Amino acid sequence: MIMKFRIFRYDPDKDVEPYYQSYEVEASPKDRILDCLNRIRAEKDPTLSFRMSCGHGVCGSDGMRINGTSALACQKLVKDFKENEEVLIEPLQVFRVIKDLVVDMDPFFERYYSVKPYLITKTLAPDKERLQSIEEHKMFEGAIRCILCACCTASCPVNLDKATEAYIGPAALVRSFRYLFDSRDEGSKERIALLDNKDGAWGCQTKWMCTKVCPKEIPVTKEIFEVKKRILESKKGRM
Amino acid sequence: MNFKHDIVIVGSGLAGLRAAVECVEEADVAIVSKVLPTRSHSGAAQGGITASIGNEEEDHWEWHMFDTVKGSDYLADQDAVEIMVKDAPRVIYELEHMGVPFSRNAEGKIAQRNFGGHTSEYGKKPVKRACYASDRTGRVVLDTLYDQCLRHNVKFYQEHYVLSLVFEKGKCSGLVTYDLSSGELNLIEAKTVLLATGGCGRIFKTTSNGFASTGDGLNLAHGAGIPLMDMEFVQFHPTGLYPLGILVSEAARGEGGILRNNLGERFMERYAPTVKDLAARDVVSRAILTEVREGRGFEGGYVHLDLTHLGEEKILEKLWEITSFVRIYLGIDPVHEPVPVYPTCHYLMGGIPTDSDGRVLQDESGTITEGLYAAGECACVSVHGANRLGCNSLLDTLVFGRRCGLAMKKDIPEIEHDPVSDEPLKKGKEMIASLLERKGSEKIDGVRRNMQLVMMDYCSVFRDEEGLNKGIENIRLLKTRFNDVEIVNKGRNFNYELMEAVELGHQLDLAEVILLSALHRKESRGAHFREDFPARDDKNFLKHTFFFREAPEVKYKPVAITRFRPEARVY
Questions:
Q1: In this structure, which CATH number among 3.40.630.30, 3.40.190.10, 3.40.50.10470, 3.10.20.30 belongs to the domain A2-103?
Q2: Is B335 an interface residue toward A (CB < 8 Å)?
Q3: What are the tens digits of pLDDT across the range A51-88?
Q4: Domain ranges, residue B519
């Protein structure tokens, strides 16, 4: 079958402004959209730029907007689209476009790092492992599926709104959740201090877009809710 | 631009990150990577990391060592294997203390599961040795180590592609990089360089490897005069998802999954009566393809991996990722239907020869290359010999990545930066310019696709002299065609076509090295199976291949045998 695409193009070296370009490629129903993009590059237009690495939804490189929704190009198959439909491919929103579908991920990783995404411990580690029950592990297990693809943050209406764009975004909050609810972590206090502000956990307006687009099916909004609850509980505890 | 660091690490996978964490407190460390952080292929490792911590049942490092040596078909260097397996428990506890979210058992300890070739009492029965985090072990370790690097201010040159290694008077003194985001070339001076660039699975059509696994580091070293060791040993993982080649972790069989042919038979009972589906990977891959050849496979050349008896709860808890892959890519639910699988190119046992501290060797007699280290899949210590056991690769990256870090930080105070001339940078610029100016009728994709087919046809699971010779002839033809590749994209930013041209040059060189190394080894051992020489020949070939760029191309090095004499390898 023939697949039609309309792709966002922008090369700051020669384009005054972005434009859209149409392509048609041969495809089979089980092909990934990523396969189609590679075919376009190989057969039609080698100047098209996009990131990719593992090709099966583990590395998080190929987040982009497909028909307006953030997704991984390696996780969407041709058969999910209608044959004569022109599939619209655009870069992730929220982030600055560097070239075509490649966006500047630095701010994403900076915000990610701002929540101290590592285990904080105060007590001395035992000789062997720190114990953790199966139930305790289950508390945060969904969150460790996160691959930092940024689909959630790029779809969040709060991050998209210029007035509230300083919000650290769902991905950073998923990581916060992961450590706040890890029974081994002893950094609750400093984590909560980082999150208890209008651009932290309270920036979330429960719009559910993050949950809807997450390629790893993480219950992002619920986890952010749990973070907010934990912040409130810590305040109650102090009173 | 010119930059200067004490230690420059190429590659941001597990080996590179672990090395950086080790030495960053005492040295100025930078990591160069052609992809963004956390996109490296270590993240795709699923099943686990082996260590004889005995959380589920009795286990000992001696058993782990025996299994690794037997798995290697007795080609691994036993002194190096001993270092690795003895260090494994420390590695696991260290990762746990850093925060890696390992799955747990009922006692709250790190859970362990079965994996191919791992046994108790020297082969008597399968043992639970693999420590895991569901089936995303590589990814969570990668994330954890990346976070440690950020915490300790490791400098990252992300999306920088290494064009060449710089040598001054025989010592590696830095490298030239191409900045993908700007097209600028940089000279990064270093007191010492670590290559941790991973494997080269993308030389083959069917592979579990990501797009970035093009073997750049291997060929950069080879181009600088370093021999490549045991390159004929390329592992085909038995269970690649048909027809994509994506990895379906051995954990699926470790948790009880069974391989079945088109008659519904559990055929591994015939090939490995004791451990059955949990035999070493080379054994299972040959078994699958033998079933297919003898007409007991399914049309297209695959068999079934049956998980349906495990139940939804266990499948989703222990094998969430692969369940998701199967559902997305094939529209099949492994809870209710068998999964079609076939062997997929997965891992390079061979690589840049190193000692057990990661120092790169220049020859078969062990001469050290000053200023150059290698670790992880691109290196060959050799702990995997002719066939790697599952879950030993993450262990390898973490043990030897750390050892490189330790050795490098010890070196640093003794070393001064060499005065580096502008010559390497000038050469890099000329190389890029000449690539961009090249006129011709060939395209990267056409040559690359052909190379991948040639390697599948002549150099995958089954090999023979005639095929290997055909393969060599074909690859040499493709090298000529490669000189006619024209790069259409002349842009400066994110010009992937240009990078892929350089990658393809490396891939073609490596393909030829693999074929030639395979041609010279006239025996069958581990992953290298010669139909014209189907038996292992310890008398003539219990030795490592060293492949040099200049004639005589092939030399050999004896295997270090300390505890286990070679014996028949039966599972």
A1: 3.10.20.30
A2: no
A3: 999 999 999 999 999 999 999 999 999 999 988 899 99
A4: 439-523
